[in-house]
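INTERNAL AUDIT FORM
Audit reference: QA-55
Scope: verify that the stored structure record matches its stored sequence.
Auditor: D.O.
Record contents follow.
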Amino acid sequence: MSAVIASPQAASGRGYFKSHLRDYGMLLSLVVIMVLFQVLTDGVLLQPLNLTNLLLQNSYIVVMALGMLLVIVAGFIDLSVGSVCGFTGALAAVLMVQHEWHWVPAIAASLVVGALIGAVQGWFVAYARIPSFIVTLAGMLVFKGLSLALLAGQSVGPFPVQFQKISSGFLPDPLGGESLRLLSLALGVAAAAVLVLTEVLARRKALAHQMEAEPPLFFGVRIAAFAGAMVYLSWLLSTYKGLPNVLVLMSVLIVIYQFVTGRTVIGRRIYALGGNEKAARLSGVNTPRLAFLTFVNMGVLSAVAGLVFAARLNTATPKAGMGFELDVIAACFIGGASAQGGVGKVLGAVIGAFIMGVMNNGMSILGVGIDYQQVIKGSVLLAAVFVDVYNRNRV
């Protein structure tokens, strides 16, 4: 994304904004949508209880969106993630409830199965050269049927308390806060401080190497807004039960994938694969293996999401995961990923997931029917892809 220019100051504020309209547009869209529903719901949206529910409801979508982003950036698609999510959750339920496995080996087995599913599908895509749409469409049907067979058409639960805490638990507060969870607030403030520090250091490095840098005003406003939002949301959550365990899990995964996509060789190669597979292959990139690994990664994250979803419901159902693939793919496209591959950011996918989540939550609070919710979500997705195609055609 960064490009060498004659001077760090060469990019004017207006020019920089135009060239990064996609990134700023996503942030502004999320802010506008949150403010809109905060007003329409008379302040219910950002109440601590509802905010906690919003995070729990979208945790598994965010987790899968991280993997789906890499798949889309590499130039593929995965329609099976919802079914794999439901199947791995069902497997964990059968192992823990019916076969009385301890929850730790049950989780490990589910993650291994998720990786194997991703490996099988990845082999067909990468080495058998079957289009990913066809392979994962078949996978969606296969694992939906296997979930039904594994559960014998019935719900299985409840789970051990320790397993439930993956999704429904909160960070303990050894500092003794009652009306205010002090540890959760301190972690939120610390995370905001780390964000500011890393962004400042990254900008200094870019300036030192004569790379394109964000104008000072834009940089200051963006960082202040991010850090302020993190502290404010941490304070809101701290007045209820503190930071949910699943938020910690999400945050760790986001940091890992942000690092992988932005700072590692394999991350750059994934973008090269989606941008131009032939050029990447001629440059020495083992493109089949890279494509294979993106699907293995997707399988593992689908399994993680399946465990989180099952823990939240405290039961595994044959219909678990139904329709999740649509929300996950929509989150990536709304977050700026290109349908043609080679373009997309981790934070964009996360923002896209929360745009969908806030819309779902806000419309539910307002009593909007599921029929109109689907119409609105579909329209937003189409508009996001249209903007991407329009911008590409202008270049």
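Auditor finding: record pair retrieved intact. The CA atoms of residues 115 and 349 lie 22 Å apart.
Action required: none
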